[in-house]
Write a structure and sequence with these properties.
Layout: E1 37-39, E2 42-44, H1 58-74, E3 91-94, E4 106-109, E5 123-126, E6 140-146, H2 155-165, E7 166-176, H3 193-207, H4 216-226, E8 229-239, H5 247-275, H6 280-295, E9 302-311
Length: 315
């Protein structure tokens, strides 16, 4: 279990209760998939329209990069934990997003938002990972995914395909953040707007067959059922805000807070208006409450996060 995070001495100052800082399935990157859909002033991907409910515009890409930095700092400035060799030949990054960390890899995503220029050893592919994979079997040295809760409907299928396409001795690693804001000191208000937001996000995602709260042990069990061995789960906490006492952890909280303050509109609007029947104005009013609570120094909230990694069976 991840250790508790100590709060800064002035993190509950009632007189200053906010922060100042605010093959048949594979499609190449072509004009047909960059004819985006626009809704509520935000841009959404066109390939497999509706398959992914979050925007892919520059504002969302900025949030994704901030989130990546918060996670990487939480993990001790490591992009991954798998003990892969530096001379590994083939790496698959599932849901690669902006491609901010890729190096010597094959990145795959539904949205073509990756850089148009990349080094020769990096290739991006627009594809749906929940369709049968077109890669050769026993192909990859390492398969990596990050924040696929809310993107994957069928985790067992993902692990079965990963097992098929990893070479013997290869690794798979999944880094996830369940949408389940917590505190260790019961500092979330009784009628917490953040708690309500998490619940409504989950309700909306379930309308399209996805879960936002899946534990590390659940992922571990699905990996084992697919045939992987020696599955390890590492647990961490990502603070929301600058309330932690430790300066390094407080920096993580600052990244996470900005990511949420700037990005929560994109995380919320399409889900609530499409699947929960909310009006845009009502969503915006509710998000004012959520932002205010996240900025409160008296609320010591964090996201649980975990890394599940495993070795491909050598047998």
């Amino acid at each position: 279990m991840a250790e508790s995070i100590a709060a800064h001495s002035d993190a509950s100052n009632e007189n200053d209760d906010s922060y100042d800082d605010a093959g048949s399935y594979t499609t190449s990157i072509a004009s047909s998939i960059t004819e985006y859909k626009y809704e509520h002033g935000r841009r959404y991907h066109a390939y497999q329209e509706g398959r992914y409910a979050l925007p892919n515009d520059e504002e969302e890409q900025h949030r994704m990069d901030l989130q990546y930095h918060a996670m990487r700092l939480t993990y001790g400035d490591k992009p991954f934990f798998a003990p892969v060799e530096k001379d590994m030949k083939r790496v698959l990054d599932v849901g690669t997003g902006t491609g901010i960390w890729v190096e010597d890899i094959y990145g795959i995503d539904l949205s073509p938002i990756q850089p148009r220029w990349s080094t020769p050893n990096v290739k991006y592919q627009v594809d749906d990972i929940e369709q049968p994979w077109t890669f050769p079997t026993d192909h990859f040295d390492f398969i990596h995914s990050r924040i696929m809760l809310g993107s994957l409907r069928d985790w067992p299928f993902f692990f079965t395909q990963s097992f098929k396409h990893l070479r013997p001795g290869g690794y798979i690693e999944c880094q996830e953040i369940p949408v389940d804001a917590r505190t260790d000191d019961n500092s979330l208000p009784e009628n917490s707007a953040l708690t309500a937001w998490c619940k409504l996000q989950g309700d909306a995602m379930r309308k399209i067959g996805m879960e936002l709260v899946v534990t590390g042990d659940e992922i571990k069990n699905q990996m084992l059922e697919a045939g992987f061995v020696d599955v390890e789960v590492k647990e961490f906490k990502i603070p929301i805000g600058q309330w932690p006492k430790d300066p390094k952890v407080r920096e993580i909280g600052a990244f996470q807070l900005v990511a949420m303050l700037e990005g929560i509109g994109g995380l919320t609007m399409a889900l609530w208006t499409r699947f929960l029947g909310w009006k845009r104005e009502d969503v915006e009013d509710e998000l004012v409450k959520v932002r205010k609570e996240m900025q409160s120094k008296s609320v010591h909230s964090y996201w649980p996060t975990y890394v599940s990694l495993t070795l491909f069976s050598l047998m």
